[in-house]
Write a structure and sequence with these properties.
Elements lengths: L35 H8 L3 H8 L7 H14 L5 H8 L4 E6 L3 H6 L1 H14 L5 E6 L3 H12 L6 E4 L7 H7 L4 E4 L10 E5 L1 H14 L5 E5 L5 H13 L5 E4 L4 H14 L5 E4 L2 H13 L9 E6 L2 H5 L5 E4 L2 H15 L9 E3 L2 E3 L5
Parallel strand pairs: 1-2, 1-3, 3-4, 4-5, 5-11, 6-7, 6-8, 8-9, 9-10
Antiparallel strand pairs: 10-12
Keywords: DNA-binding, Transcription, Transcription regulation
Protein name: LacI family transcriptional regulator
GO molecular function: DNA-binding transcription factor activity; transcription cis-regulatory region binding
Length: 359
């Protein structure tokens, strides 16, 4: 195959290409380890051309790129990641930052769904996932130093609490960021992917009234998270009569406590909208313990449509939010944002009601 060279430059003349990607590394290759020269010899091109292909240079024809990629596959050549980072200024890794303790992560099907979908979206790329948990202010300071230190190409931020300033500071430092859920803090210049929490909660509350329920209470989410705030707003927008609100934190334990408080405050309630399926499943158990029949005496609707909605007794009517699509879209937007000249906009994904036996 004919060699491809820089126009106007003699064959094998020195070029301004980046340093060779098989530069010595802490673990030096053995004599049998394929190098750039090995790939170049098999492909019939110069090592500079192999370097261009590996660095995704546009100065390579499709035919030459195909030949080099075939040679890489045939030889089993693996680029030196450290040298590649020096050349491209990319680490081929992204951070998924979850602002929750580990116990909450593994007990929350929404968060595990996000982790799974992000991992699946990255599986077809050369980008590695770095999972990071943030529990304290000290954790957040260490996290920010790590992200600013150039160890990753960007960050996905999930389950933010309060008026979070971290996304804006990272964007201001030039770090690509995509947030899962609309932040409660400033959103100017931020890219986020969220579900239509207001619309979903409004739909659930109206559905309960359409069933003829006259006293609809809610177990709301935490007031320091956008999902909690927006789902409460949807309930308040649609509820008829006096609102009855008790807050939880999206966990099963908080749903148990909240349902018990609701029965004390409003013993005549005939419907409950819970802002998460875990809280709704806990509410079902409390209602059963109190002798209330579901849905005959009290209808219950949750939010999320996770596996717990199917396993509950009775199966839970709930608002479906596309968790896996959210994780995939966040990942794709982050990978695009890491490429200069590819601006992105926030996205709101639709929700829908899934009717089962609890309402």
């Amino acid at each position: 195959m004919p060699e491809e060279t820089t126009p106007g430059a003699p064959h094998d003349a020195p070029t301004l290409d980046a340093p060779p990607l098989d530069a010595p590394a802490p673990d030096a290759p053995t004599p049998d380890t394929p190098t750039l020269e090995t790939v170049a010899a098999v492909a019939g091109v110069s090592r500079a051309t192999v370097s261009r292909v590996i660095n995704n240079s546009p100065k390579v024809s499709p035919q030459v790129r195909e030949a080099v990629e075939a040679a890489i596959a045939a030889t089993g050549y693996v680029p030196n990641r450290a040298a590649r980072t020096l050349v491209t200024r990319r680490t081929d890794s992204v951070a998924l930052v979850i602002q929750e303790p580990e116990a909450h992560l593994f007990g929350d099907p929404y968060l595990t769904g996000i982790v799974r979908s992000v991992s699946e979206e990255l599986s077809g790329t050369d980008t590695q996932l770095v999972l990071m948990m943030v529990k304290t202010d000290a954790d957040q300071q260490r996290l920010e130093r790590y992200l600013r230190g150039g160890h990753v190409d960007g960050a996905l931020l999930v389950s933010l609490h309060g008026d979070a300033q971290l996304p804006g500071r990272l964007v201001g430092a030039g770090i690509p960021v995509v947030v899962g859920g609309r932040p409660l803090g400033p959103t100017a210049g931020l890219v986020y992917v969220d579900a239509d929490n207001v619309g979903g909660a409004r739909l659930a509350t109206r559905y309960l009234h359409d069933l003829g329920r006259s006293r609809v209470a809610t177990i709301a989410g935490p007031a320091d998270m956008c999902a909690g705030v927006d789902r409460l707003a949807g309930y308040l927008d649609a509820v008829e009569g006096e609102p009855v609100v008790v807050h939880g934190d999206f966990t099963r334990a908080s749903g148990t406590a909240a349902m018990r408080e609701l029965l004390e405050r409003a013993p005549g309630l005939d419907a409950v909208f819970a802002a998460s399926d875990l809280m709704a499943a806990a509410a079902l158990a409390v209602l059963r313990e109190s002798g209330r029949r579901v849905p005959d005496d009290v209808a219950v609707v949750g939010f999320d449509d996770v596996d717990a909605a199917l396993w509950s007794d009775p199966p839970l009517t709930t608002v479906h939010q596309p968790v896996h699509e959210q994780g995939r879209r966040m990942t794709r937007l982050l990978l695009d944002a890491a490429i200069p000249g590819r601006p992105a906009e926030p996205e709101i994904l639709p929700t829908r009601l899934v009717v089962r036996a609890s309402a």
